[in-house]
Amino acid sequence: MGMLSMRCQRLSRQNVERRSQLSGRLAIVLVSGIVAGMNAIPAADESTPASRPRYLNPLAVRFVAATRVAVELTSIRETAVVDLESGRIVAREKWPEDRPEADVLGPVVHPEDLRALLLQLQPPQAGPIRALWGRADGGWMVHTWPRSSLPATQLAQGWVFTSGLTRWTGQIGYLWETATLDEPEQGFADPSDLVVSADEQTAYVASAGSDCVAVVNLRQFSAVASRLVTEPADRRLTPYLRRDDLTAARWLVRARLPTQSNPRRLALSPDGRTLVVSNFLSDSLTIIDTEQLRVVRHVALGGPEPDIVRRGEMLFHSARLTQHGQFSCASCHPGGGTDGLNWDLPRDGIGNPKNTRALWGCRETAPYGWLGSSATLADRIAGTLRTTHRYEPTAEELAALVAYVASLPPPPPATVPGEKQAAYQRGRALFFGKADCAGCHRPDTYQDGLTHDVGTGDLYENRFDTPSLRGLRFTPPYLHDGRAATLEEVFTKHNPKRRHGRAHELSPQELADLLVFLSHL
Question: Percent of the chain scored above 70 by pLDDT?
């Protein structure tokens, strides 16, 4: 069966753009967890304050000639053609008015004929698939392993996060080979894209958190991966037998080539000699000579100088602020959102894991943390860096991070379709009336800045900060420990003491109406 050709990128939550690529390969960029992992990212507020610079945010890049690439400048909705020899932009084209915004972090909506394949590719507890390159009889994928089931008491040996490269061949699920891309004291954070050479001897993997591209020797991959297998007879278990072994990268990674801030997309030239990297947060491209394994140049695309918010965004997405560089703030808060996982972080003790909270609109929702123990963003961020990241921020770094996190807008309310308008209005009336939700979840932030006992705690922790309900549809699971998989379970399965207002008094139809209202906030 011949190779398929396709690259899929999420341009909106309901739109997929397919682009033909070179050499008949299948390439799918999966930036945020397809089957398990990160939650959807809401569309950003379209308004840009006049005081903020307008950055370019380059994303998808592709060769249009031997020495020219087209790169999408997502923030200004333009496609620029860059001459690689001169480093100059030689043409620009505005996007059509009806083209959707580029969803740079949200889960990819991929063709249905790939859905079954992806479900089989991701075994239980594997982290989000970040990029996939394949053909009918096999291929490669890069993914992360978040170790949220372990207390985050140490960072060494991949205790919190590792990233891996996996090969599958033949019948899906029967031959797996996996190796980590991290090393004991050099993490490979937030892998973001993958391309494979035409001869399938080399893979290039971008690390958005470590600001580099790893050049992986695929010729040696099977030998190295097989060395990690303790039960060769059952190759399906390969990713899990020795997946924490951090020695594989020493044998597989030929080079780690530096990029600029937050590399997210790769393009390999038709002759395989040039690799172009789009650096999302530095508004630049990095050009790499793949034969000599060296960076030829960084090409500035003309974006403005970073202000304090942009510098904070760079730090938020950088693993430099973590001991050994294993993960960034964005590893758990993609786009300022949530990975949907429970983490047992040392700041409030061990044995009490809590669900990751989205940061959208948090400037208005003090105090911070599920226990409400941080009065300011500065205290929360600094404490997390010190206890979880094992990093002491400078005053300038902390100020920039606070500025960025405070700039994250709350998700806009969802548009209520006509057929749900009546249920929405009934649910709204219940929210402010019979169900008494507004007693704690007060507009406009839909929280009250207080802690409450809602019957989900234990002897030591029984009062939790009231979470904002804005963007609730993007942040499952729910409650402080993620025990409620759906909003309905908050009021039914996990409401033993009936302390969520008077929601327990609602009829099934009234509860359904309330859920319609909540899901559109």
Answer: 79
Phi (first) and psi of residue 247, to 5 degrees = -95, -15
Domain ranges across the chain: 308-407, 418-518
CA distances from 430 to 503, 508, 509, 516 (A): 9, 13, 11, 11
Stretch 142-152: mean pLDDT: 86
**Encoded amino acid at 394, one letter:** T
* Contact (Cβ atoms closer than 8 angstroms) between residue 238 and residue 176: yes
Among residues 53, 55, 98, the alpha carbon closest in space to that of 74 is found at 55
Among the ranges given (97-111, 158-172, 359-373), the one the predictor scored with the smallest mean pLDDT: 97-111
Which residues have CB under 8 Å from 380's CB, separation 6+? 368, 369, 374
CATH number for the domain whose boundaries are 308-407: 1.10.760.10
Distance of alpha carbon 295 from alpha carbon 85, whole angstroms: 13
Superfamily of domain 418-518: Cytochrome c-like domain (1.10.760.10)
At position 216, the amino acid (one-letter code) is V
- Contact predicate 308/403, CB 8 Å: yes
Asked if 308-407 and 418-518 have one fold, the answer is yes
Helix (H, G, I), strand (E, B) or coil at 255: strand
pLDDT at residue number 107: 38
Pairwise CA distance, residues 480 & 353, whole Å: 9
Which tokens sit at 376? 């300011």
Q: Is 249 helix (H, G, I), strand (E, B) or coil?
A: helix
To the nearest whole number, what is the mean pLDDT of the chain?
A: 83
In tens, the pLDDT along 221-259 reads 877 776 654 444 444 434 444 556 788 888 899 999 999
Cα separation, 423 vs 429, in Å, equals 10
Instruction: Look at residue 250 in the predicted model and tell me its pLDDT.
Output: 87
Residue 143 pairs with which residues in a beta bridge?
129, 164
191 upstream amide cis, omega within 30 of 0: no
pLDDT (average), residues 286-297 = 97
On the question of a cis peptide bond just before residue 367, with omega within 30 degrees of 0, the verdict is: yes
pLDDT (tens digit per residue) in 386-406: 999 999 999 999 999 999 999
Nearest to 43 by CA among 418, 477, 473, 332: 473
Query: Is pLDDT larger for residue 359 or for residue 37?
Result: 359
54 is written with which tokens? 């307008």
- Supply the DSSP symbol for 405: H
Q: Which is nearest to 181 in space by CA: 218, 154, 151?
A: 218
Q: Which pLDDT band, with edges at 50, 70 and 90, does 170 fall under?
A: low
In the 8-state DSSP scheme, what is residue 403? H
CB distance 10 to 109 below 8 Å: yes
